[in-house]
């Protein structure tokens, strides 16, 4: 006989609990921006050296300042002309590969200068190799990272990444000037090479090309799949240029940014140290003043990014250029054997304005040219560097001919006034436009 079996009703299963992973407290985009910031700082050493090379190369090899300025102008021109192709190459091969190769080329060019004996080698090693490498990770690098990883806070991030170059200048200028003064220019060139190589592991291990690589949406935006690689990088860069060149805003932006380059990289970064040395100021003291410009450049550029998110960009540009022009007109009266309060006021004032023009210029490119804005900005940056190259060469020639840099300071001040007027003429777009990629 079977015993009674007590029937028990199993307890009801607990209701399923929906699980959703908590989003990270800090979005991955900020880590990518931090790696980009460190990368630009580490690569900034190559931009700090040209102004320190003019006097030692002139003394050792008896090359004219115009010859040395020509090598620097080739560097600056290639820096700009490579940028739009670099933006397309980043679309085709990824940011990590392009930047890692660029840093390696910079290191190679800087190392080769140590054994040079002729002026054409300076042009080839420092002008061509370092120019191509630096152009491949120029401000187009910052613009590409910002466009891919951020929707909100783009102006602020642009300002921070732009300020990274000034931060690198702050780090390297005092060290490089001390090396040039006490050990010679060759150890300084080796330091530049090692600094570029030291950044490569950060880029390769920590940087990611697109938010979709880590299954994230860009900061402040919606998730989107990573676009397929775009073939024909060079063709796309040229096509975008031809399309953009049919618009008035492109030429106004290119013209204002050419004057920006002429009045910063081409003039002050290249010729301020030798100009101050002409007036009896020690090279280390002049380089220290450039480093102080870098300190206030960080503040000014980040503030400019904040302003760009909130104020009308054309008027910001006009104010920046007007103030820069006024300061340059006063500089010839301030140069002296020792550092005095009016010179310090110029350094602070000019430093706040050094590259404050970059965030509103990138914002205007984005407003007018949409998805192709990084490539368009690459071409605008090319005009910046061509302007810098012209003045880097012309400044050296002016010093050889007039025995003074004063005519170049005054001319640059007048050009900045023209840039302020050009900025006000840029029209407002009705809506962002994407230029055809093919």
TrEMBL record:
Primary localization class, coarse: membrane
Domain of life: Bacteria
Region (Disordered): 1-20
Listed Pfam families: MFS_1
Keyword Repeat on entry: no
Topological relation to the membrane, as annotated: Multi-pass membrane protein
Residue ranges crossing the lipid bilayer per the database entry: 29-54, 66-86, 98-118, 124-143, 155-176, 188-207, 250-268, 288-307, 319-338, 344-364, 376-396, 408-426
Localization per Swiss-Prot or TrEMBL: Cell membrane
InterPro entries the record matches: MFS, MFS_dom, MFS_trans_sf, Proton-linked_MCT
Sorted UniProt keywords: Membrane, Transmembrane, Transmembrane helix
UniProt domain Major facilitator superfamily (MFS) profile: residue ranges: 31-431
Cited PROSITE patterns: MFS (PS50850)
Protein name per Swiss-Prot or TrEMBL: MFS transporter
Organism: Streptomyces roseoviridis
Lineage: Bacteria, Bacillati, Actinomycetota, Actinomycetes, Kitasatosporales
